[in-house]
Design a protein that fits this description.
- This protein is α/β, with parallel strands linked by helices.
- It has a seven-stranded parallel β-sheet with strand order 15-16-14-17-18-13-19, sandwiched between helices.
- 39% of the residues are buried.
Length: 818
């Protein structure tokens, strides 16, 4: 009887693959362990064991595995069930979920090694110069890597050379799996065993009397150790003794000092910070907490609707504390990495080193360490804060999931697959883990609030700000009228400049919001009207002043700013529109004494960039912070008294059915950054249309009015949450192929689904990275069976793939498109 395993490969293929194992391997292996398996002619992949059985594959002969990579499973069975749901619901392969879910360091890759074929007699005269260089190198070395050969022949592409050598039977290739993750080892030193007694130590110091630097190292070691006998790092000893690593190495070689390597995590909690007592909840928070606990007892997903600065985080802290007391783990999901900066500090104040952080700004090594700590249920990973990828961590005792700012579009993954929504996936994970889940927001998504009205979700609300501070006073500034009267200074109205001056004079701070980075979105020639376009995408290049560059925000193509028009040669270039850079520059010219900072994608590329800007603003080293939407949500700045919104209209006038909902959420959230301490804050919204319904609702803080308008509109036009939307995208570099393929697919869909198929249509930006894009949208009734609908679509896709002329056209599914 043979033994077999079904494995998940990290490649976009629908089915699992079967490999043969020995009886001993089958008894050792467990579901969730990694194995290295051969795939194709020579490639070796890291695969995940999904099933162990004795049924041989009927269609092909199972290959043997290459090697077992783990002693214990790195993925739990609950995770595998969750991944299966994501793959099924979001119409992608399990392999794509696997690749996205685990840190890259777990996906060991094989490296091609080149060896000399010892059985072949080589006539060196028949070799070309490049072939001879490779052959000569292999005479001296037993094996070479591909990149080493590239360096030898000084060429990037060496595959043709290797192919010719393989055909002549001069070389052989071998695949070797290598480990990407390397644990961090810290070097500690102690005094050698020989010198532990007082006599031996006295003799040692006498013998070092002619080596004062070495003697100073020994004395410094004693000073650092004191009476505690703690281990001292080599780095600490270097600094204390003012010596070099070479002197310490000499003492280690003489066996006077002993070196010990200790494995340690790369991210370590600062032990100097002691956990402090939690704040007492006020009556409004206490009532919300009781409502949440009642809802949890009924096993319901619960929505906490608390106005900005109402103290939702304190309620979360209380729930996390109760979860930890029960010996369970808590997951705190946030939409933006920027939000983790403040929250980590706050949670560490309460829970100390029980807090772990997981997001994409961390290195692959740091992410592996967090993964292993969560898997082992270590004390240092009882609470995990992270962006959407933290959802995939291997929790063994998950007791609570908190999805903060649940309305945020950032929770949706767009590229690559799986195109999942972290909030919805978290709800499924909570169901599979049998744990509680809380969604929190000051401006809940229409979908979540609709589920509350239908009784599907539990509901709790906090309508008062913490400390009974009033909601900010919102003023709509009509810049259309001010522009006509020529009372604008650049992009600043008199009201806004006066507000900034007053706030700064009173020692307070200001936030200015403009939802566009760069200096100007368009540079136009006033003579001929030409505007520089991206050669790879159908979009204008954005002008970035700080680098004097024109950049594409889709493919990162850039060029130097031209001094004259590329079309007519005239030096009559003028910028149109404005971004955060221009706001910062204009304000600096108008008020030279102000300390101004900027927070957008350009200024937050480094690992600690968010932390530096936020800390600087918190310490009042800046008077004004200009930024995009990354500073609108969740951040808590006690000294901000004024928020200025530079132009609300570019949010409202967007071709999307969610534009008005998102505008309300964004404007309400950024307004909520003002007046969070004792004094009532002010918000100035500059707009060309102050009578717009959404702006009036933001000014009146009328969430329910906005929700009623939106739900009625969506009922009328068949949009979520009353209907489901599935967007199918077609991509190819050939315009005609995309056009024909999308038309064929849409016609096939209409045969099955009739009038609920919209398109195909080109989006606003119809070409990105030289790929033409076309969308087909399928609207589905809530009652429509989703599984059957997807099966119909997959059958159509199989027929589509069989048509030779559409080969190469990518078909991308986006379920619950937002």
């Amino acid at each position: 009887m043979g033994y077999f395993i079904n494995v998940i490969l990290p490649i976009p293929l629908e089915k699992l693959f079967t490999y043969s194992v020995s009886k001993a391997e089958a008894s050792y292996l467990k579901i969730g362990m990694r194995v290295a398996v051969p795939f194709g002619k020579s490639k070796i992949y890291t695969a995940l064991v999904a099933e162990i059985h004795t049924t041989a594959p009927a269609v092909y002969e199972a290959k043997e595995i290459h090697q077992i990579l783990d002693d214990d499973p790195i993925v739990t069975e609950v995770q595998l069930r969750h991944w299966s749901w994501i793959a099924s619901y979001y119409m992608c392969s399990l392999g794509e979920v696997f690749r996205s879910a685990v840190p890259n360091a777990f996906l060991l890759e094989s490296e091609t090694l080149i060896l000399k074929n010892k059985e072949t007699v080589v006539d060196e005269k028949e070799l070309s110069d490049e072939e001879f260089l490779v052959f000569e190198a292999l005479e001296r070395q037993s094996m070479l890597k591909v990149q080493e050969i590239a360096a030898i022949v000084d060429k990037k592409n060496v595959l043709p050379i290797l192919k010719r050598l393989l055909e002549k039977n001069i070389i052989q290739t071998k695949e070797e799996v290598y480990q990407q993750y390397k644990p961090k080892l810290v070097r500690y030193v102690t005094l050698g065993e020989k010198y532990q007694s007082e006599e031996a130590l006295g003799g040692l110091l006498d013998s070092l009397s002619r080596a004062p630097k070495q003697s100073k190292v020994i004395l410094s070691l004693f000073q650092l150790q004191g009476n505690t006998q703690k281990k001292i790092t080599v780095k600490e000893l270097e600094v204390k003794s003012e010596s070099s690593a070479a002197i310490i190495k000499t003492l280690i070689d003489k066996e006077i000092l002993e070196e010990v390597l200790v494995r340690t995590d790369r991210v370590v909690f600062d032990p100097a910070k002691k956990p402090k007592n939690r704040k007492e909840l006020n009556e409004h928070q206490q009532q919300a907490l009781e409502d949440i606990e009642t809802s949890f007892s009924e096993n319901k997903v619960t929505l906490l609707h608390g106005v900005t600065s109402s103290g939702k985080t304190e309620v979360y802290v209380k729930l996390i504390a109760d979860c930890i007391k029960e010996g369970k783990q808590a997951l705190y999901l946030l939409p933006e990495i920027a939000l983790t900066t403040q929250l980590i500090a706050r949670l560490q104040e309460y829970f100390g080193e029980q807090v772990a952080v997981f997001h994409s700004k961390y290195s692959i090594h740091e992410r592996v360490e967090v993964w292993n700590n969560v898997l082992a249920n270590k004390a240092k990973a009882q609470i995990v804060i992270g962006a959407r990828s933290a959802l995939f961590l291997p929790f063994s005792k998950l007791g609570l999931i908190i999805v903060d700012e649940e309305h945020e579009a950032s929770f949706k993954q767009y590229d690559p697959a799986p195109r999942y929504h972290a909030r919805d996936s978290a709800i499924v994970l909570a169901h599979l883990s049998k744990c509680n889940i809380l969604l929190g927001s000051a401006t809940p998504s229409v979908e979540s609030f609709y589920n509350v009205t239908q009784g599907k979700y539990g509901y709790a609300q906090i309508q008062r700000r913490f400390g009974n501070v009033q909601m900010p006073e919102v003023t709509l500034v009509d810049i259309k009228e001010l522009t006509r009267k020529k009372r604008m200074k650049g992009h600043f109205s008199e009201h806004l400049l006066h507000g900034i001056t007053t706030a700064v004079e009173e020692g307070e701070q200001v936030i200015l919001f403009q939802n566009r980075r760069g200096y100007a979105p368009i540079v136009e020639c006033t003579t001929c009207g030409h505007s520089p376009q991206c050669p790879n995408c159908d979009v204008s290049l954005t002008f970035h002043q700080y680098k004097k560059q024109m950049r594409c925000h889709y493919c990162s193509y850039h060029m130097a700013l031209q001094q004259s028009c590329l079309a007519c040669g005239m030096a009559t270039l003028n910028s149109k529109g404005f971004g955060t850079e221009q706001v910062e520059e204009e304000l600096q010219k108008l008020m030279p004494n102000l300390r101004i900072g900027r927070m957008d994608l350009d200024t937050t590329r480094g690992k600690y960039a968010y932390e530096k800007i936020i800390t600087s603003f918190e310490k009042h080293e800046l008077d004004v912070l200009v930024g995009t939407q990354m500073l609108t949500k969740g951040l808590d700045f006690a000294n901000v008294s004024l928020v200025g919104i530079m132009n609300a209209d570019n949010l409202l006038n967007f071709p999307d059915f969610r534009a008005h909902e998102r505008s309300y959420q964004l404007l309400a959230q950024v307004s909520g950054r003002a007046g969070r301490a004792k004094k009532r804050g002010k918000v100035l919204i500059q707009t060309y249309n102050p009578y717009h319904q959404i702006l009036q609702q933001v000014a009146a803080n009328d969430y329910e009015g906005m929700y009623t308008d939106q739900i009625n509109e969506r009922r009328q036009f068949k949009y979520p949450p009353l209907h489901r939307i599935l967007k199918i995208t077609f991509k190819h570099k050939d315009y005609t192929k995309v056009e024909d393929a999308s038309e064929w697919f849409a016609k096939s869909l209409r045969v099955v689904f009739n009038s609920t198929v919209l398109g195909p249509e080109f989006p606003a930006v119809s070409r990105i990275r030289n790929q033409y894009i076309k969308h087909v949208i399928l609207k589905m009734e809530k009652e429509q069976h989703l599984g059957k609908t997807k099966n119909h679509i997959k059958r159509i896709e199989k027929s589509f793939d069989a048509i030779a002329q559409y080969k190469g056209v990518r078909v991308i599914y986006n379920v619950d498109y937002i």
